[in-house]
Amino acid sequence: RSILLQQLTQLTGSVAIFTHFVVINAVVAHVMDCPDTLCVMPANGSVFTFAVTDGVLSHVHSGTQQASVVN
Description:
Elements: H1 2-9, H2 21-31, E1 49-53, E2 56-61
Antiparallel strand pairs: 1-2
């Protein structure tokens, strides 16, 4: 997780990253200071937007969430 976050904060310009549910949750948990493993339930194909300003990663937009019968 720390390597992922370090790499994300070094990105410049506009970048699209296609990734998995767990990675999205790791990034969301970091930027929203969420202690849970699952902070969001991203639906298939949903788009989450983040920004890097002065090396700090921030949340801009959450994509569509899927319903869960467990949560």
